[in-house]
Amino acid sequence: MPANVQPARRNSTEAYRAAAAAYPFKCCVVCGLQIAAALDVAHLDHDPANNNPDNLAYLCRTHHWMVDAGLYPTEAIVILREHWQKNRDTPNHKARMKDAGPKAALTRKRKEAARKAVATRRSKAGSEPT
Ligand SMILES: [Zn+2]
User: Fold this and answer.
1) End-to-end distance of the chain based on CA atoms, in angstroms?
2) Which band of pLDDT confidence, cut at 50, 70 and 90, is reported for residue 94?
3) I need a labelling partner for 118 at 20 to 30 A (CA). Which of 69, 75, 96, 104 fits?
4) Maximum CA pair distance of the chain?
């Protein structure tokens, strides 16, 4: 770096303030961790002086490291950041529950058949001569 160029100044307080104002739901945008003390505000362009909210995302320490190491594309972090702000921590079980009613009905039917078979076996065993 040339001597006359100053390195970008980091202002963590400003980064946290800007992130809190722009993203009221605080969680790691990758894993959803919501422990505030464990969350960093990451600079997606790796410029610590750029505290534009578009450049910031909450990440846990592990995912912050992984993002800084280039293991997640920035575009994915931006999509996940918007997703968490919109959906918060409300899970959508629709895909997993789509067949729950018919599966439960089949289980009840099989259980009743098994109970009936046991009762039949017991009644036959009781009627046999000893
Ligand atoms: Zn995480």
Assistant:
1) 99
2) confident
3) 104
4) 106
- Output the CA 82–ligand 1 centroid distance in Å: 15
CA distances from 54 to 4, 36, 60, 89, 97 (A): 29, 20, 18, 21, 36
Query: Which residues have CB atoms below 5 A from the ion given as ligand 1?
Result: 28, 30-31, 60, 63
Structural domain boundaries of the chain?
Answer: 12-87, 95-127
Tokens of 67: 């993002």
Q: What is the pLDDT of residues 97-118, one digit of tens each?
A: 888 889 999 999 999 999 999 9
Q: Which residues contact 49 (CB under 8 A, 6 or more apart)?
A: 8, 9, 10, 11
The Cα–Cα gap between 32 and 26 comes to 9
